[in-house]
Specification:
The protein is of the alpha/beta class and 269 residues long. It folds into two domains: 142 residues, 3-Layer(aba) Sandwich (Rossmann fold), CATH 3.40.50; 90 residues, ProC C-terminal domain-like (ProC C-terminal domain-like fold, Orthogonal Bundle). It has nine helices and eight strands. An eight-stranded mixed sheet has the order 3-2-1-4-5-6-7-8. Bound molecules: NADP nicotinamide-adenine-dinucleotide phosphate. NADP nicotinamide-adenine-dinucleotide phosphate (NAP) binds next to helix 1 and helix 2.
């Protein structure tokens, strides 16, 4: 049986990421008829009653999905805190913001679970890292893809830096591949399709067989052949480039974590 929401559910901020989670859950058959979402813009969330202001909500939710940007946390916290009690499971997807910072703002909440999802959750193909809580709602996250439960918030950040941000990096790589195809004379739509299918096919093949990436590269690149000539350029910079990319994102995560600490002199903006 499909795991269901544990009771009245509020989604505070339902933009790109929380919206993708909702889409993934709806796709899997989760019932949102008792859920409410807040979006100040008034944009609807398909299949969920949506309000523009948190102050219009009444009652005590069993599950809260906090889906705002970290910079909006202090805008929603005082009002939201009044509705929470020890039965509330508070799930935060805010990058960087630590459980202690959430607990300081929501002392009444029961469990606090930090989750770092990525956008492919909408297709049930996401990676969802989580930490905190007693695991009671982990099955719900299993509907969204691969769940990685981490023992520490440092590990959560590490998974988030790969998986949470990863679709942006992969998207850039696919676009770069397509651009190179256009430079070689392909029509843009053809190059886009070929680049996407090449990445999808490689990932599907590796996932099905368990073959390592190193082995796949060896199978494609015959010694002294065309791919080998290409890899000699790519290998000079790719590892370092990706490492520096992820380090920069991690530093920003640390800044957000620091700014969200309740006694921090820095602001979340
Ligand atoms: N995007 C990702 O791939 C990703 C991955 C992992 C984690 N995250 C985390 O997900 C969170 C949201 O990111 P996002 O990319 O989804 O941003 P987003 O698309 O801008 O969504 C933010 C949501 O917050 C709502 N909001 C703004 N002010 C509010 C308020 N005062 N009260 C209630 N709701 C309010 C917005 O409402 P409107 O829709 O009406 O504008 C919007 O629905 C961030 O904390 C981020 O760290 C994102």
């Amino acid at each position: 049986m499909t795991p269901q929401l544990p009771g009245a559910t509020w989604i505070i901020g339902c933009g790109k990421m929380a919206g993708a989670m909702v889409a993934g859950w709806q796709r899997a058959g989760v019932d949102f008829s008792e859920a409410l979402a807040v979006r100040p813009s008034g944009n609807p969330v398909e299949g969920i009653r949506t309000l523009q202001r948190l102050s219009k909500m009444g009652g005590k939710p069993r599950l809260v999905l906090l889906g705002v940007k970290p910079q909006k946390l202090d805008e929603v916290a005082p009002t939201l805190a009044k509705h929470l009690n020890k039965n509330t499971i508070l799930v935060s997807i805010l990058a960087g913001v630590e459980i202690a910072s959430l607990r300081a703002r929501f002392p009444q909440a029961g469990q606090i679970v930090r989750v770092m999802p990525n956008l492919p959750v909408s297709e049930g193909r996401g990676v969802v890292a989580l930490t905190g809580g007693d695991g009671a709602i982990d099955a719900l996250f299993g509907l969204l893809g691969t769940v990685v439960r981490t023992d520490s918030e440092a590990d959560l950040a590490a998974v988030g830096s790969l998986a949470g941000a990863g679709p942006a990096y992969v998207a850039r790589f696919i676009a770069a591949l397509a651009k190179a195809g256009v430079e070689r004379g392909l029509a843009p739509e053809t190059a886009d399709r070929i680049a996407l299918e090449t990445v999808l096919g490689t990932a599907a093949m590796a996932s099905a067989s368990g073959e390592t990436m190193a082995s796949i590269a060896v199978r494609v690149a015959s010694p002294n052949g065309t791919t080998q000539a290409g890899l000699e350029i790519l290998d000079q910079e790719l590892d370092q480039l990706v490492s520096r990319t992820i380090a920069a994102a991690s530093r920003r995560g640390q800044e957000l974590a620091e700014a969200a600490r309740i006694d921090s002199p820095r602001s979340l903006a």
